[in-house]
Amino acid sequence: MEDLKKRKLDEAGNGDFTSKEELRFLIEPLAKPQLVDLLAKLGSQYPSIAEEIKSIASADPAHRKLFVRGLAWNTTSETLRAAFEEHGEIEEGAVIHDKVTGKSRGYGFITFKNMESTQQALKASSKLIDGRLAVCNLACEGLSGTSSAPDLSLRKLYIGSLSPEVTSEMLLHYFARHGEIEEGSVAYDRDTDESRGFGFVTYKTAEAAKKAIDDLEKVLGGRNIIVKYADSNKGKTGQPPFPSGVVPMASLPMSTGYMQPGKSSGPPINYNYPQTVAPYSASSYPNPHTVPSPYPTQGQIPYPPVSAKKDQHGFPPTQPVGMNNYPYYYPKQ
């Protein structure tokens, strides 16, 4: 009530009163950062406004719902809720199971009744539940959560050649000497719940991850283990490596005009069609020497022109002459 009276007195002292419609007209063009700063300033000056802001924010489940990943396959909904009850009253909590097999999918959700409880849980985002280090973030941030940070590739490590006896707790305890761990676990088979011989550790800083890689002592569970960046292929094109001794064709020098390997048709590489061909110089190729012929040159013999007139049908115009100048006689037709 005192805050309300103070606000009324301030308004009366100014002598100017702005209607709700006029305030909306002034507020609508403002950008989100400007509105956030304005509400934060008013909330810090007037506790009643701060309570109203909290009430509106708490009513939205997006500010109270957590996504919890990295759960053990045998973690139940009751175990999950018990792990988060220390932060406040829980409205809803459950582990998500596969609809077909009925087995856990390794993650779940926790919804608190108050937004303050959610903020407390986020301050301690990593929790050891059933021997696995589970990590939580706001459900509205998606499945990646804090793991979407741009430097994740420099903080997340792959741990290989693990003994079957090494548990997630042993793994986390061993690597905690290099720095604070954000997330980590041994990879377990979903069906048998047995170790698959490798795991992952994500530090909160890239410096801690580099210290773990540079550490010369890499023995855990009586074995020499492998420690490297989990995203070791970052920056590569994704092409499969070539076998030893095989040189990719792309690295060999190609002469201009040769056909591309593996192709039966198509123009040669490095050619642009159509091409202009330079004409040959006449002086480049001299005419051959003329050899004199050993035989005399014979002139052309004139022949009489042949008449193109066709003979008439029937007897020839002149009677043909036979032996002793006797004419031929034709049999009667």
From TrEMBL:
Q: Which SMART domains match?
A: RRM
Q: Which domain of life is it from?
A: Eukaryota
Name any one Pfam family assigned in the record: RRM_1
Record PROSITE patterns: RRM
Gene Ontology MF term list: RNA binding
Question: RRM domain: from which residue to which, for each copy?
Answer: 64-141, 155-232
GO CC annotations, alphabetized: nucleus
The UniProt keyword set, sorted, is: RNA-binding
Chain intervals for the UniProt region annotation (Disordered):
284-321
The name under which this protein is listed is RRM domain-containing protein
Q: Which organism is it from?
A: Phaseolus vulgaris (Kidney bean)
